[in-house]
Fold this sequence. Notes:
By secondary structure, the chain is mainly beta. It contains three helices and 13 strands. The longest helix has 10 residues. The two termini are 22 Å apart.
Amino acid sequence: MWLGLALATRLLAPPEPSSEPELARARPPIGRLSTWFGPGVATGLTARRYGDPRDPTPNEGQLAAATGLGVLHGQVAGYADHEARRSRAITMLTPELRLDLEFGGTHAWRDPIAEQRELAGRHGVAVGVSGATVIGFGWASPGVAGVYARVTVGQHFSARTNTNLEGPYAIAALGPSVGLRVNVHRMFTLLVGGGVDGLAGVQRFDDRGRLIAQLAPIVEFATYSQPTPDVYFGFVARGDMTVLGQRYGGQRLHGRASAELGWRLTSERVAKPKLNYAALLLTYEGTRIDAAPGHPQFAALGERRISHQLLLAGGISF
């Protein structure tokens, strides 16, 4: 992680003075290390349906829960590229380090069949922490349109009280991806590609920690835009689906998308010049886990677990 931050600091540092026209120097390379923290709100919907997930008729009971949270969000994230003097290959760096401290509550309910079987989800005060540590490092061909190759390593984690339908987890991922890169005058960069991730970690199901070990193809889409020197917009989406390792974690379908809008604060806009950057972030994350009857880690009847999480946060940097 520290190596990634050191590379990010180097790549995302302000450009050196040059003899280029003032207009060209005013627009730095796309992306920067946006470091900020601030308050936010989050909501989550989780559900569990007992029975064979291939059967569209749920007849073994259903549980559901809704969670509302106040969040203190902090993140270090961004995009940078650098073209070495002696090489036409472009080096890319895409760090994402985020941490959410959460406090709120959960309300759970069940259908009559689950009530007859004495199945229930916990509800009450919800306190937890979630976040990610992800570093992507890659290379791209120069020009307006080209290709890129990237290796991404990271870990996602989440743990909350009274949200047992999903279960706390800490899952690491490592894998390569390749795709198309479009770069327009360093004002706009687009990455579209795919690859494969190896997943390993632990998730708690029914009060027992379970091993997660899977191989999953991924698709990724990202845009980084800086239309003016003081405004930045980024959108990143990534999805994966299990192809190997269903015995260790079930059949998983996971996706995450986030949009960030940031703008630079100048001394004319605020009383304190030290407040130099403000941002808004909207993030969605969804997961579906299917386990056929007889799966060793889930209910003997089989089950489907679904989770949707939405976060809206804003903040400033100093």
